Amino acid sequence: MIKTNENKRFDNFKNSIYKYRWSYIFLLPTLIVYGMFILWPILASVYYSFFQWDGFSAWPNYWIGLRNYIDILNDKYFWNAFGNTLKYVFWQNLIKLPLSLFIAWVLNNPKLKGSNFYRALFFLPVVSSTAIIGVVMTFMLAPWNGPVNALLNTVGLGTIDFLGKASTALWAVIFVEVWHMSGQYIIYWLAGLQGIPSELYEAAEVDGANGWQTFSKITVPALKPIIIIVTLLGIVNSLKVFDIVVAMTGGGPSFSTEVVTTFIYGHAFGTSIAKIGYASAAAVLFGLIVMSFGIIQFFIVKRVRD
Amino acid sequence: MRNDKIRYLVHILLITTIIIWLFPFVWILSTAFKTSAQMWQGGIDLIPDPVILENFVTAWNSANFSSYFLNTIIYAAGTVFIAIFLGSTSGYVIGRFPFPGKRLVVTAMIATLVVPQATTIIPIFNLMKSIGLLNTRIGMILASSGGLVVNVLLFSGFFQGLPSELEDAGKIDGCNFLQQFFYIMFPLSKPIIATVTILTFINAWKAFLIPLVFTFDRAELRTLGVGMYAFVGEHATNWTGMAAAASISIIPMMIVFLVFQSYFIEGLAGAVKG
Predict the structure, then answer these.
(1) Chain mean position to CA A47
(2) Mean pLDDT, residues A125-132
């Protein structure tokens, strides 16, 4: 009896696989690419992280257990990179998010003519590749009377070597990325603002509320779920900062702009004797940090939408 | 009366902000037409005097930006092709068929959505090296398709929203699965194809890490971003040439964006509206 039941279940299973054979055929190419370039690299990074490996042999073979992790947690250069990343993420978002929200709020006024035109212009920096923005900005901020310093000199503030000094380099990178990415966040905020029913604004107008009152009493509370979503998007995106640092400072001067991604890159690709295991351990730790924000994002977004 | 004044004031403020906002681009474009001597005088002078085209010739020919430009187009086009192929096929079956294991596939994809490239780049590099695809165009394109999950979700969301009568009609006409997809479903997904194309194209144009590690030993395969980075390393003093190279890299993408902006903005806004 039992045996026939099991056979039946197996037959059912076989039938449904057969029934959906085309689904599996259509899914297969995606699964192969997903396996090769997402799933396998994640597993391999974890595996590599338990080895001491210079990358010359085809496969790691000197198992050292948790040694890499212990070393990283005692590596002051890692903590420096970690601290810089946090500082970058914190300030970049703290400036970028309110600034882009304010611009979006101005552009969202239905009576404003040409708001799509302004939106497109604010967005232009976003489509330019970060590596090239980095070079352009190095040029803009150049101490030999580049335009920014020319302006500072004209108003009598003297020359500042923004990228040459450890105290200003990270700030320069932060401000460049605020400018570079704000357009994208203006689009996010506009999408959110357009979801606020216009009756709310009309009611505020009847009550004689001024612009700021409308913004703080109507717009911001109605936008709360969107604020959470966009803030988390901003955090996750900015944690991954890499291109701009490589293009503008290469992590210098004296490690003042080194971030976790450049730390990983440096150990894996940037030296003659690579420390693949060590870089992988840093990569795993970094992946866990970014993913934990991603998980928070996922659940909050789900709660907000349900 | 008062409202009109405020309206003009808002426009004046917006235009002023835009001028400052876009100043770096205007300045880099004007520098590209300047002589080196004028550039070294520095300052915020925007008018090239005399106007020269030499910098563009240098960047395009001797600094190889013509081949970087072509490489970037090939790389971006290849990435777009793979994104559409994978996104539409798997998005179609995920969006419309309750096959066993679907939940697992979707959950795995969403769970790894935010995994940063810095975490995966070392094994990707090793994998491509061991199968001989490092320092090749095809390897670079394949390695970039790790961002496929977003496309799969965009396509599956679209297909899920189509009425089920479509398949019934196809069945009556005697369409098999492939015909159903290629003649009916795929053409219907034009709006998503457009969105995925423009998002993927711009992202590929901006990509840096993958093209960087895939061209360590093949300088002739460099894309614009990597070429620019290398150019700075090799010709650190030729700032006007750099300005021309930067203009060559930036301006085409701006035009593409301005022409197709509605697709791009819809694709982006989807991240918030869901």
Answers:
(1) 25
(2) 92
